[in-house]
């Protein structure tokens, strides 16, 4: 049909992740674990179109978003691909407001698109795994304390041993800057946000460059260095005696969250008040979260989020406060893989490869039917060829067991099950086989 | 922040499906069931980018595809959204050829995009659930017989009672037309394909319009009216004594497939040889499948596919024959819903809503922690308000049980579990509660 010249070199675009099946299986297991935990805590699934009207997705507008968004026309319609799951959530809640029950707890796992500059570890298509709890007019602060318990449960189930959920409240920062009589703290917050990366001296330097007074810088540095246990930090914040409402409100919220995070069963070693956690500058209005792997701080935050006053102001006049988090699974998977933390052995979904000897296909099919009836993931090797090749097929795919069906087996009504890892081979009756493979 | 004029009316584009959570739960259950069955039969997952180079996706080119595809530029790059999962599979297998193990059995569940004319029941974004078995150079015909058993197992698990998998072999059609000395059968096949819809008389009419000789038309009509059991149909095909290789090859394949479909455990009433099944005119080269709900023939085929000689000729010189099927879940879900075949009651994923009475939040959280530790999907109602409102929240979401935690309960160490459907309320100890909700 085609000649050499017609062949298009098969490749994908830079900045897109594509996995081999053995990797995909583990990626999917992580996705499933996240979904499982989200459902365990009472979140409902939604799924929104990847393509929306550009007008909808860019209602807020401005900043990096507009530059990075995939935007195009189809006919006369100005379209774009979603760049996060929050804007679609806002549109969804505004659109379906009267059909939803509040507080509305939803999870959404899906791909989002950002035409970023291609660089290692940055993806243009990536999975986000989001949960949000949306209130109608108001939403209790206890919700902010439940969120860390969901993060904890999820990352435990994902197999992580040591990680820390860092918690802060932006009202405390806001009140603190009000107390310092700083009207626009944007630049300062941007600097504080980099503390972990650049260190205290560099932060001081940057603050100087911003033209702040010496005394102000001293107070900022003192503030962000507040240390000790969570209780000690709260005490020190109290002792600052900052007398504005927003600071006090933030401090009270943080106290409540700190108390109930413990009540929700998150161990002390897995969460921590950190006054330098800032998060997206204009979106969050109260509690904020970031999560770090203790042994791999360079990976950065693996799960972040926070409280916001008003989810959907661009689409409705309803006031919809909420709190939520997001796990960027594509980037997380990439980073874990780079750090050699993902084990690809034993990832096979298929439990057994049935290998029919010549002339015994009918019997092999019969036995495969029985295995599948018992929900045992089973493949039959249907191609002709040498037995060695068939064993090596199971080996290459990491299928843990092979089952030979031939003359001897049919005569004895016992079948040779081979453990592909140990090489051990046993003759089992159908009943024994089902019992063994079902466990 | 915003005033009235700034509000963008929240809506999605026509031709896109968006579900409420209660619907989404059932949609996801169907997706999970399909995935579960695909894995049971030994298929491996892959996931490819939604965006690919237009050159890749349009390598084959021509036809409806080019008109319907979402295509756009980002910088200088000519991009498009995938319009099916087969072209990405071809590219994937060609690209990763040396890293894959053949026969390569893969499943892929994902969204695809077609900018079709908007009309009821047609979607521009929809889920496809595909499996394919790809051989290197060759692929045994028995694979073609295993496919119907996967369709059968999947649709049984989806809860369908009566459906028929119709099977044909395009080589038989090809050989038959060769025997009639018809070189280009495209138009005739297009007409035959409509038999179910337009009836025999209309088919005859159309064939006349195409200028075919009377005798030829008679033979075609006789051929497509071959009836009886599967065995009788095969016998009649035999008795036609058509002496060309392609016809004989097709007939032999169909005989083999017919024999082994039975061996794979598909009941007689769920499959049928149908010589009028044609499928996509230029893609399939051997066995073809279509699946119909017996009680809802108007829904059309709910699962189709077939055998092809060469998957990836546009991307590699490797010869890669394969066989596969696809379920278009978005359309199927829509059609089932239209036919009132989807029951939205009892779709809640959450098993129990814990309702703390005033002053008993700490204890309620403690008990919710215990339930979640036992993998019981649990929500705590954290907002303040009247108890009636909290019960009605559970009711609206279809949560089957509520658990009240208050003074009496804590004193007695027994907790009131209310069955929201029957209204029956019982006082249970923690052990009884876990046992009851875990079943």
Automatic annotation (TrEMBL), chains A, B:
Protein location: Cytoplasm
Record GO cellular component, one term: cytoplasm
UniProt keyword annotations, A-Z: Aminoacyl-tRNA synthetase, ATP-binding, Cytoplasm, Ligase, Nucleotide-binding, Protein biosynthesis
Pfam families documented for this protein: HGTP_anticodon, tRNA-synt_His
Catalytic activity: tRNA(His) + L-histidine + ATP = L-histidyl-tRNA(His) + AMP + diphosphate + H(+)
EC number: 6.1.1.21
Domain of life: Bacteria
Residue stretches spanning the membrane: none
Chain residues that bind L-histidine: 84-86, 114, 128, 132, 279, 283-284
Keyword Nucleotide-binding: yes
PANTHER family, per database record: HISTIDINE--TRNA LIGASE (PTHR11476:SF7), HISTIDYL-TRNA SYNTHETASE (PTHR11476)
Family to which the UniProt record says this protein belongs: Belongs to the class-II aminoacyl-tRNA synthetase family.
NCBIfam families in alphabetical order: hisS (TIGR00442)
Protein name (Swiss-Prot/TrEMBL): Histidine--tRNA ligase
Species of the source: Keratinibaculum paraultunense
